[in-house]
Amino acid sequence: MSFLIGSDFKRPDSEVVEAFTRVSTAALGHLTDFGFPRGLRPVAKCGPFAGPALTIKIPHVDSTAVHRAMSLVRPGDVVVIDQSGDDRRSSFGGTLAAIAADLGAVAAVCDGSTNDVEEIRDLGFPVYSRGVTSLTTRVLSLEGRINVPVSVGGVVVMPGDVVFGDGDGIAVVPADEAAEIAGRLLRFEDETARLDLRGGVRAGTALATLTGADRGGLG
Q: Which protein family is named in the record (predicted)?
């Protein structure tokens, strides 16, 4: 087999990407069920991030493509790795996290596990994966794909899609919808802040009245 490196992709405007750092992934969860990879968690506590996806697909044990992809990282990118269903191995440990950070990447999302967790924690670089392991991939030069559609946690990720994350998890927004969705999320966050549900309940108004839940019948 061979290695395939797709064409470089168009990155969203920086203003659009920055907007996703000012909203929560849960805000998107109030608007849609789509775009939430299942089973991935932050390796260590990290702040919010957002960036276009640099996608990589590897064949289980061989992480050669991950190493090749480092030369394609641009500042602001999120490294997204599809391990072809192998969630036992790690394809992204402490050294790769440090190199990616040095190159300007803002996070990594791996549909597998992670090693060198303490190094990653000390680095402060956001890495999301399925767990922790000592079993790693190897550089075998078998095959791989870069800048192609991948699947992570049941979500298709295209090169250039906006990936954003926080303590709750990660979410993926299609590149051609990013500007519109960012605007909706900013408006939702502003409206939620103005509504002040906690303050309203403290003032004596029922939560269901504030949210509109009492305007529909049950059963």
A: Belongs to the class II aldolase/RraA-like family.
Q: First and final CA of the chain: distance in angstroms?
A: 58
Report yes or no: 114 and 129 within 8 Å, Cβ to Cβ: yes
The label of the residue with tokens 């000390």 reads 122
Give the residue ranges of DSSP H helices in the chain: 14-20, 25-29, 64-69, 94-102, 117-123, 178-195, 197-202, 207-211
SS3 label, residue 74: coil
CB 112 within 8 A of CB 140: no
**Any idea what DSSP says for residue 213?**
G
pLDDT average, residue stretch 141-156? 97
Say whether pLDDT at 216 is over 70. Answer: no
Name the DSSP class of 89: S
Phi-psi label, residue 84: left if phi above 0, alpha if psi -120 to 50, beta otherwise? left
- Rounded Cα distance between 54 and 74, Å, is 9
